[in-house]
Amino acid sequence: MYTLLKTDGKAKRGRLETVHGTIETPVFMNVGTAAAIKGAVSTEDLKVIGCQVQLTNTYHMHVRTGDRIVKQLGGLHRFMNWDRPILTDSGGFQVFSLAELRKIKEEGVYFASHLDGSKIFMGPEESMQIQSNLGSTIAMAFDECPPHPATKEYMQASVDRTTRWLDRCRVELDRLNGLEGTVNPRQMLFGINQGGTYEDIRIQHAKTLRDMDLDGYALGGLAVGESHEEMYRILDATVPLLPQDKPTYLMGVGTPANILEAVDRGVDFFDCVYPSRNGRHGHVYTNHGKMNMLNKQYELDEQPIEPGCGCPTCTHYSRAYIRHLLKAREMLGMRLCVLHNLYFYNRMMEEIRNAIDAGEFQAYKKEKLASMGRSN
């Protein structure tokens, strides 16, 4: 159950009650593609850095180690030793990212595994079955994430098929949730709005989705090559048409600035690989912009990455030591940078929630953007 606690302009402050605990929104979901955050981050670490929700990839868990094995082991939560919410994506993004390895049909998508080339079929029913086996808190509907750019004719046909697939997802998940032995019989379903940068297609699809009374509503197919300005334009046109009393999730976004702008437009769920991916390359986020920890200027710098930061990295280690680890290709260097970045993101979301609670989001956003932009 989602409760809208407060608004500040279009910014939403909400609370989603789930079978695996409460999610305070706006929230950033930490991306653990293969049931783990890349960078040697454990589930115990995630609690220390304030993670509320972890996201796991349906396609990747299906091809390795296998969703049926995970079900035999009690589902993702027991498998990972994680007792908080998990969102599983549907496999739909792989329709986009593995474009050279798949064929899209009305019944679903035929893949060649990126691991060994073996044939895989995934349609709406199969996606729901995999996610049910995983037992995640929130399952995403199976969709096509269309390429950018795409013709309007292609986009409309894709969106229409995604809507038909959503109907099939709903029917199948209702069936699975009613079966004896289901890992999580209270699994939620979020639908996904598509349409690329075509406002009219996005708007019509949003109207169709809102009438389906889903547990939540996502916006997909953004951050796939369009400009930030185009993304914000689509959010301006689409988000107001989605139910305000349900979670709104912007998939795969993004930078701290992207998140602040999207919160300002009514989005309250986010995920992105940036903090972990950048961290593994020694790029860290601070309130004064990004830093490259490989730079020679940090060779003798005994300060933490960001003075005053409460993350485990900044509490215990210096810039000089982290630079040394990265230069020596020690895994600990990547781990410490990832921990800092995820803490930064989770802490920023907490600050956003507090600012909305206080009716001060606009002032917070302006100050945060100005501060982060000074050194960029």
UniProtKB/TrEMBL annotation:
GO biological process: tRNA queuosine(34) biosynthetic process
Quaternary state and interactors: Homodimer. Within each dimer, one monomer is responsible for RNA recognition and catalysis, while the other monomer binds to the replacement base PreQ1.
One Pfam match: TGT
GO MF, one example: tRNA-guanosine(34) queuine transglycosylase activity
Xref: NCBIfam families: Q_tRNA_tgt, tgt_general
Residues reported to bind Zn(2+): 309, 311, 314, 340
Organism (species): Anaerotalea alkaliphila
Ranges annotated as spanning the membrane: none
Swiss-Prot/TrEMBL keywords: Glycosyltransferase, Metal-binding, Queuosine biosynthesis, Transferase, tRNA processing, Zinc
Keyword Glycosyltransferase: yes
Classification via InterPro entries: ArchSynthase1/Queuine_TRR, TGT, TGT-like_sf, tRNA_ribo_trans-like
Cofactor note (record): Binds 1 zinc ion per subunit.
Designated name of the protein: Queuine tRNA-ribosyltransferase
Alphabetical list of Gene3D superfamilies matching this protein: Queuine tRNA-ribosyltransferase-like
Pathway this chain belongs to: tRNA modification; tRNA-queuosine biosynthesis
Residues annotated as catalytic: 89 (proton acceptor), 271 (nucleophile)
E.C. designation(s): 2.4.2.29
Role: Catalyzes the base-exchange of a guanine (G) residue with the queuine precursor 7-aminomethyl-7-deazaguanine (PreQ1) at position 34 (anticodon wobble position) in tRNAs with GU(N) anticodons (tRNA-Asp, -Asn, -His and -Tyr). Catalysis occurs through a double-displacement mechanism. The nucleophile active site attacks the C1' of nucleotide 34 to detach the guanine base from the RNA, forming a covalent enzyme-RNA intermediate. The proton acceptor active site deprotonates the incoming PreQ1, allowing a nucleophilic attack on the C1' of the ribose to form the product.
One Gene Ontology term, aspect cellular component: cytosol
Enzyme class: transferase
Region annotation RNA binding: where it falls in the sequence: 252-258
Family of the protein in this entry: Belongs to the queuine tRNA-ribosyltransferase family.
Domain annotation tRNA-guanine(15) transglycosylase-like: ranges: 10-372
Cofactor entry: Zn(2+)
Reactions this protein catalyses: 7-aminomethyl-7-carbaguanine + guanosine(34) in tRNA = 7-aminomethyl-7-carbaguanosine(34) in tRNA + guanine
Positions with a binding annotation for substrate: 89-93, 143, 194, 221
